[in-house]
Amino acid sequence: MKAINKLVAGVMLLASFSALASQGSEFEKLTPEQALVQANQWYGSNQASVQIFPTYITANFADGSHANIPITDKHPISIAPYINHSHPCDFHVATGCTRELKGVKVGVTVYDESNHKQLMQKMMTTNPNGFVDLWLPKDKKNLTVVIHYKGKEARKTLATGKTDLTCITDMKLI
């Protein structure tokens, strides 16, 4: 509940930009998780361009300001499961990347193959851009992500190092 309250507080802070503050300086006050939530809310609005890298989030705003938010403790991965169409992507642009399964519930399970432990199993709703956002442990080499949707499944093994991807668009549901 604390995490949700922090996210709500961060989004409210961002929504209450003062006339004197730049969008970039206000955005930099957010945690990485809050910044990604806000970026998803800006999807398709042309208010900002927000790109997610393994170690930071970078944003360029309509007012000309810029912001970087460091990511230190988790690895962000945005996954767009698909049935018919996909596109190549390496580092997620939350405000621009788009996929076909928007606003649908998917089952997401993550396994750490190095120690055979399940890290996550839950239902998630894809964002307006068709992605689900995961915050996974850093510096792992064999994390298997399984996504279920309407009796179909997609499976992929991922890594979460400093140069690994944050945008996964090749998980075809079959």
UniProtKB/TrEMBL annotation:
Q: Is Mitochondrion among this UniProt entry's keywords? A: no
Against InterPro entries, the record matches this protein to:
CueP-like (IPR047808)
Record-linked Pfam families: CueP
Signal peptide coordinates: 1-21
Query: Any idea which UniProt keywords this protein has?
Result: Signal
In terms of NCBIfam families, this protein maps to: CueP_fam
Protein name from the UniProt record: Putative exported protein
